[in-house]
Design brief:
Layout: H1 6-13, H2 17-25, H3 32-45, H4 51-58, E1 63-68, H5 75-89, E2 93-98, H6 103-115, E3 120-123, H7 131-138, E4 143-146, E5 156-160, H8 162-175, E6 180-185, H9 191-206, E7 211-216, H10 221-229, E8 237-240, H11 243-255, E9 265-267, E10 284-286, H12 289-306, E11 313-316, E12 319-321
Parallel strand pairs: 1-2, 1-3, 3-4, 4-5, 5-11, 6-7, 6-8, 8-9
Antiparallel strand pairs: 10-12
This protein binds alpha-D-ribofuranose.
């Protein structure tokens, strides 16, 4: 069936194509009589204006890009849901891309999304730098960082309070009597891992902790499993930089014949869906994932639609969740 186009509408309404275009894009005043004829013709013919054509004319495609670093980590889909629920309400479409923690893929994705004329970009970086992004922001790309900030790029951001979350967790462990700590963290390149590390160092200094160890690794189950197997002297508690690391730690300790929490405590960070169901259920720090996504989407749409260009940062509160993996 031939697709109805703008010329068919103009013919049916007995007006010019530019009049139809003005009515569709609300780009200039059109008399009531002409406007109702055009609207009648659109309804009668079932005309659907082309988003691409409209985008090229108005410079807006009502499309948002979102680059996340690891689609397999349940932390991110909860964030994406908060983003998409809000965008749908504002009639925007989301293009979700996974950089697979690879800065090279991430850089290619920025180019691809710009070529698709996105109106704005939500960005959770794989690393600590992104020249490509820095350049794009300088050229006017509207960006909001979500969960991880990239140093050197002047853009608004929404993160959770990684520092306070880790500090509160460690202070809970200290009060519960734990005295030796082994921290298996995410990669040094990620903003969230670095902030949690800082909180750990400040805790060690404040409480004059004698027996502690920290390693940067990756936010993955394998990192927790493999590093735990290599630990020579098991501490009172093993801190996972996120929940996936903690799951790997728990399974490795079980294979080593050690009981959690009776022989050693284990903690995570994020409180993803499975943590309350793990065996034992995981003590962790809850990040407000859905709210982080929603807030970042709100900020980006305000940037696009209202031209809000004041750089803003939101730090949403985290919460310690005590379960059975610690005593
Ligand atoms: O689980 C992935 C981790 O990386 C989360 O803790 C989140 O903060 C992200 O930065």
């Amino acid at each position: 069936m031939k697709k109805v186009n703008i010329k068919d509408v103009a013919k049916e309404a007995k007006v010019s194509v530019s009049t139809v275009s003005r009515v569709i894009n609300n780009s200039a005043p059109v008399s009531g009589e002409l406007k109702s004829r055009v609207i009648e013709a659109i309804k009668k013919l079932g005309y659907k204006p082309s988003h691409i054509a409209r985008g090229l004319r108005s410079g807006k495609t009502k499309t948002i890009g979102f680059i996340i670093p690891d689609i397999t980590n349940p932390f991110f889909p909860e964030i994406v849901r908060g983003v998409e629920d809000y965008l749908r309400k504002k009639d925007y479409t989301l293009i979700l891309c996974n950089s697979d923690q690879d800065p090279k893929i991430e850089s290619e994705l920025v180019d691809i999304l710009i070529d698709k004329h996105i109106d704005g970009l939500l960005f959770t970086g794989a690393g600590e730098k992104s020249e490509k992004l820095e350049l794009a922001v300088k050229k006017g790309l509207k960006v909001v960082f979500l969960d991880r900030i990239i140093e050197g790029v002047n853009a608004s951001y929404v993160v959770s309070d990684n520092y306070d979350g880790m500090k509160s967790l460690l202070e809970y462990l200290w009060k519960a009597g734990y005295r030796s700590f082994y921290f298996i963290n995410g990669s040094k390149e990620t903003f969230s891992a670095r902030i949690r590390y800082k909180a750990f160092l400040d805790f060690v200094e404040k409480y004059r902790v004698k027996d502690y160890h920290h390693i940067f690794s990756s936010f993955s189950y394998e990192a927790g499993y493999n590093h735990t197997k290599e630990i020579n002297r098991i501490p009172d508690v093993i801190i996972g930089g996120n929940d996936l690391i903690a799951y790997g730690v728990i399974d490795a300790l079980e294979e080593m014949g050690l009981d959690v929490p009776d022989d050693v405590g284990v903690t995570g960070f994020d409180d993803i869906l499975f943590s309350k169901h793990y065996k034992p259920s995981l003590t962790t720090v809850r990040q407000p994932m859905y709210e982080m996504g929603k807030k970042a989407a709100q900020m980006l749409i305000a940037l696009i639609e209202k031209g809000v260009n004041k750089i803003k940062g939101y730090v949403l509160p985290t919460e310690v969740v005590i379960r059975n993996s610690t005593q």
